[in-house]
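User: Please predict the structure of the protein below. I'd like the answer in structure-token form so I can feed it into my own downstream comparison script.

Assistant: Understood. Taking the following sequence of 181 residues as input:
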Amino acid sequence: MVEGMKPSVFYNSDPTYEKATTNIKRESQKTEAEVKNFFEEIRKCRHIIDSLNQCKIQYEMDMISLKATRYDKDRVSGGRTSDLSDMVIAFEEKMKTFEELRISELNKYGDMRTKGFKLISLLSEKDGIFKSILIDRYFLCQPWGIIANSHHFAYKYCVDLGSLGIRKIAEKINIRNNQEF
């Protein structure tokens, strides 16, 4: 306490008390940031999977057009001589590594999704609106505007509800961690 200040009714002169309250607040904010980062990671992983699925569709269309090439027409002079089967094989080899990446992302997403639903299940039954908003945002990858419209809330209020849901999950995690010790 600063010299000359009058202690308030709630002031505790013990310096360890002030440090403990500061540490508890810092720890709860840290947990909240970790939960938010985890849910953002789920969202990012879902976007990657969607992009990879689009690439797969594009690959299939490219293969169809590659196989549709007609060789019974007259050859253009100066053109490169190559066999269609060589091109198809080379294209499929490149896509095998792509497919392995897609499968690994799907596995990662499945694990993260399971853990994410466990975190959401920490919310009580009366916190159903938080569950719904968090699922829409982080598992279905919907933008805040669409979520706000579907729940008939203002945009800012919907974002605040999402943040409050994450804060409640972090509080539940902190309570569970404190009970273990």
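That's the full token string. The chain has a mean pLDDT of 81.
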